[in-house]
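Exercise 4. Each item below gives a protein and its sequence. For each, produce the structure-token representation.

Item: Acetoin utilization deacetylase AcuC (Pedobacter westerhofensis).
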Amino acid sequence: MVKIAYHDLYAHPLPEGHRFPMLKYELIPAQLLHEGVITQDNLFAPELLPEAEVLRSHDPAYWQQLKDFTLPAREQRRIGFPLNAQLLERELRIAQGTIDGAMYASQHGIAFNVAGGTHHAGSDWGEGFCILNDQAIAANHLIANHIYDRILIIDLDVHQGNGTAEMLQNEPRIFTFSMHGEKNFPFRKEISDLDIGLDEGIEDARYLSILEETLPHLYELHQPEFVFYLSGVDVLATDKLGKLALSKAGCRERDRMVFQFCKDHALPVQVSMGGGYSPEIRDIVDAHCNTYKVGIDLLGD
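Answer:
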């Protein structure tokens, strides 16, 4: 059975000015349930991530500042909102949901986290609405527990996965791939194992051609046993922060190509949602729901 991490906290602890983009965390599972794509049995509420899991990936001094709520105001501004207990609990549950999802995927082929994709969080910093890096934490969990020896992270959010690149730069067993807007945030890029920076305004045909050419190359380079996929929908032409120009159909085809790659190579895949900032919430939710539909159709058991 396909499992999907979701907790009520995913949508609620943020300041008023950030509520609109967070609505998607309620609306995605609601839409999937309404359409009959999933049932309540597919959803699970993750527990809190243990401290030992945080410290495997993040710097102890940074974690202490998060726990004590002593992170300097300048660093909180870098994150984008003030730190509080609910926000930290949210991040811990998201990261645990991605670990749990990875374990479910290892059994059933695919699993999702309604939130996650917090790829701007580095080993000792938070940034861009990200505090703890869920997929880096989960990848390190799989490696540390000898569950998999070669992992591939496919990050197709419009923004570079700078935190993921930095955190995993010295871990050869985890290959980081980011395809993103070259002139978009973060303006100081880190170095992934493979980065593809895209020009502004790129449309479906060119984007999909680059991805189609790259995916086989990734397999040749790393021979992965497991995939983490960050499926941000801020690549849409409607996105107010993205600067790319994909249609919903193009975004859906992007997802199909990634999932077909996983199916062709018998690779389990955990999927975190990443960004999406279109002015119309329906555009965000529809594109994210397409990711679930395509993934479940191709890889669901």
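Check: The chain has one domain: 3-299.
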